[in-house]
């Protein structure tokens, strides 16, 4: 039944109906979708994190038929969404992080002629941005489908390897720990991430995530860019899945039983509300709900705050490239979805595999 649902939502002609898709933004005379349950944050005092609305204002839901599956409706500000998309496009695909880019693509588009590994010198975004031919630029854009951070996953053997490990990005780690604390998952350690890049029209087949040693720890998934349909079923493919609509900024957290359930992305599609103009337009001054006195002011996580609130870093490539010839960040994200999946690999008290 899972595969039938996947094929239904993947179809283009005729396109699927979204009538039964869980959409937290859909208004209804009956109120909240009866398949959802509102849950409260585990934080009892004011908790602020740069780029997020206060945790007490988050709209947090659990899917009733999928115990442990949590959905948070976009808690990010627009500048923070742009910041994380910039990190995923400009920084995360670089060495020593690993990507899916095949040698044929590295050879075709790279210009390095030294003797060491050309991957160490391949700057995916810089090279794509410099390509004048839009067809060749799009080809290189679409060639990148994933990059890994921290512990690098071995896709062939379906394992993690201590020898394939780099430092986890400090700002991303701070962000994820804030979500974990807000939801009551104290002590969560972000140790591995897979960043997926989805051109509109692409899919992710049904699978489970079971390679981490610690399967009790939650899995955090952040969506940015174009919307997608997310399917979540049961522990086998025989169970009919629920379909959720994910928009830019939405967060999925898989905990408890849902951690080992089959899930998939059968559809990524362009949407006017998340189009190029939304991301390319100059920012208006945004009023953040932050404390105003020294006594009330939260201690901003250093690695995150130093970058998110630095305009030159946060906006690099958005406004400057918005008037370019189709090779800017806004042009890419108007036809793509980016998804960051973060996991804890090790058990509590362990420092290595």
Automatic annotation (TrEMBL):
<keyword id="KW-0560">Oxidoreductase</keyword>
<dbReference type="Pfam" id="PF13532">
    <property type="entry name" value="2OG-FeII_Oxy_2"/>
</dbReference>
<keyword id="KW-0223">Dioxygenase</keyword>
<keyword id="KW-0479">Metal-binding</keyword>
<keyword id="KW-0408">Iron</keyword>
<dbReference type="InterPro" id="IPR004574">
    <property type="entry name" value="Alkb"/>
</dbReference>
<dbReference type="InterPro" id="IPR027450">
    <property type="entry name" value="AlkB-like"/>
</dbReference>
<feature type="domain" description="Fe2OG dioxygenase">
    <location>
        <begin position="189"/>
        <end position="287"/>
    </location>
</feature>
<dbReference type="InterPro" id="IPR037151">
    <property type="entry name" value="AlkB-like_sf"/>
</dbReference>
<dbReference type="InterPro" id="IPR005123">
    <property type="entry name" value="Oxoglu/Fe-dep_dioxygenase_dom"/>
</dbReference>
<protein>
    <recommendedName>
        <fullName>Fe2OG dioxygenase domain-containing protein</fullName>
    </recommendedName>
</protein>
